[in-house]
């Protein structure tokens, strides 16, 4: 399997990091996980054809993870998509798709459907998935695990992608959650979010002056470096890739992880590739 990081950032503006997007491929088979702001452009920068990607999974419905969903679908339309895009995501995915393409872009699509002729528009086919689900998309097996991204998120999902004896786990946005280390156990590559330092929202920090930075990070539904290290030590991936990163990283981020995890650690960056 080949893993390409199309976007590695968070909502905070960062010229070096787009919103979340991870492309996993094996031969001509490609699956995109999340499609945050800027990812549609990164697909173009990478020389990829939009319509070579026929499956799109979402971890959850936050803007930094699905902000380019509409752009990806529309680009596929105007470049003559032949196979309907299959979309998978948590509860709410069908509603988001309906609102975008039957409400927000309704007038735009009237114009483009009439210009391109009958049958040119192929709306995304959406399936909502839940923890415990297992899907087979040749040659990949995708397993779904429900994680916890704070009390204000209905569903946030992690995915384990397996292909020909290799495995990649994408944590999605999550705080520490019971059972995740077992879900990720012995994977070849664990792509895990991390939130170094103290959260920036003033309301959160001022409303809870007695909480530590790590406790505040957990309230937001994220993991501290120490916690990511513990998760990795328990799950024992061959490689840990730190993802979902703010503009300014501490110089000792990897060292913070290695206090708990003895294995290989790398920091993600946009357009990097890893062969698993």
Structure characterization notes:
Residues 18-198 form the Metallo-beta-lactamase domain. The chain has helices at residues 39-45, 63-66, 69-78, 93-104, 106-116, 180-183, 202-207, 213-219, 225-235, 253-258, and strands at 2-7, 21-26, 29-33, 55-57, 86-89, 125-128, 134-137, 140-147, 156-163, 166-170, 189-193, 239-243, 264-267, 273-275. The chain contains ten helices and 14 strands. The termini are close together. By secondary structure, the chain is α/β, with parallel strands linked by helices.
How are the SSEs ordered, and which strands pair?
Layout: E1 2-7, E2 21-26, E3 29-33, H1 39-45, E4 55-57, H2 63-66, H3 69-78, E5 86-89, H4 93-104, H5 106-116, E6 125-128, E7 134-137, E8 140-147, E9 156-163, E10 166-170, H6 180-183, E11 189-193, H7 202-207, H8 213-219, H9 225-235, E12 239-243, H10 253-258, E13 264-267, E14 273-275
Parallel strand pairs: 3-4, 4-5, 5-6, 10-11, 11-12, 12-13
Antiparallel strand pairs: 1-2, 1-14, 2-3, 7-8, 8-9, 9-10
Oligomer: single chain
Strand order of the largest sheet: 6-5-4-3-2-1-14
Percentage beta strand: 25-35%
- Which regions have little confidence, pLDDT < 50, spanning 5+ residues? none
Helix coverage percent: 25-40%
Principal-axis shape: globular
Mean pLDDT: 95
Number of strands: 14
**What's the main sheet like?**
7 strands, mixed
**H/E topology pattern:** EEEHEHHEHHEEEEEHEHHHEHEE
Structural class: alpha/beta
Distance from N terminus to C terminus (CA atoms, Å) equals 5 Å
Q: Give Rg in angstroms.
A: 19 Å
Q: Tell me the number of helical segments per DSSP (H or I, 4 or more residues long).
A: 10
């Amino acid at each position: 399997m080949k893993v390409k990081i199309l976007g590695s950032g968070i909502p905070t503006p960062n010229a070096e990091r787009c919103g979340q997007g991870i492309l996993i491929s094996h031969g001509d088979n490609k699956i995109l996980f999340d499609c945050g702001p800027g990812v549609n452009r990164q697909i173009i920068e990478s020389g990829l054809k939009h319509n070579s990607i026929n499956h799109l999974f979402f971890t959850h419905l936050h803007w930094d993870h699905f902000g380019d969903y509409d752009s990806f679908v529309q680009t596929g339309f105007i470049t003559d998509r032949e196979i309907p895009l299959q979309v998978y995501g948590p509860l709410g995915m069908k509603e988001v798709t309906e609102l975008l393409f039957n409400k927000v872009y309704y007038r735009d699509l009237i114009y483009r459907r009439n210009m391109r002729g009958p049958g040119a528009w192929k709306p995304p086919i959406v399936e909502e998935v839940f923890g415990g689900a297992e899907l087979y998309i040749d040659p990949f097996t995708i397993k779904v695990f429900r994680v916890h991204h704070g009390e204000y998120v209905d569903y946030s999902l992690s995915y384990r992608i397996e292909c020909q004896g290799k495995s990649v786990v994408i944590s999605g946005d999550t705080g520490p959650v019971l059972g995740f280390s077992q879900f990720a156990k012995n994977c070849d590559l664990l792509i895990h979010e991390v939130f170094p330092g103290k959260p920036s929202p003033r309301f959160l920090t001022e409303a809870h002056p007695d909480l530590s930075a790590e406790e505040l990070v957990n309230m937001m539904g994220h993991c501290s470096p120490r916690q990511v290290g513990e998760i990795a030590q328990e799950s024992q991936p061959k490689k840990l890739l730190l993802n979902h990163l703010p503009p300014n990283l501490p110089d000792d981020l990897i060292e913070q992880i290695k206090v708990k995890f003895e294995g290989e650690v790398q920091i993600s960056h946009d357009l990097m590739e890893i062969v698993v």
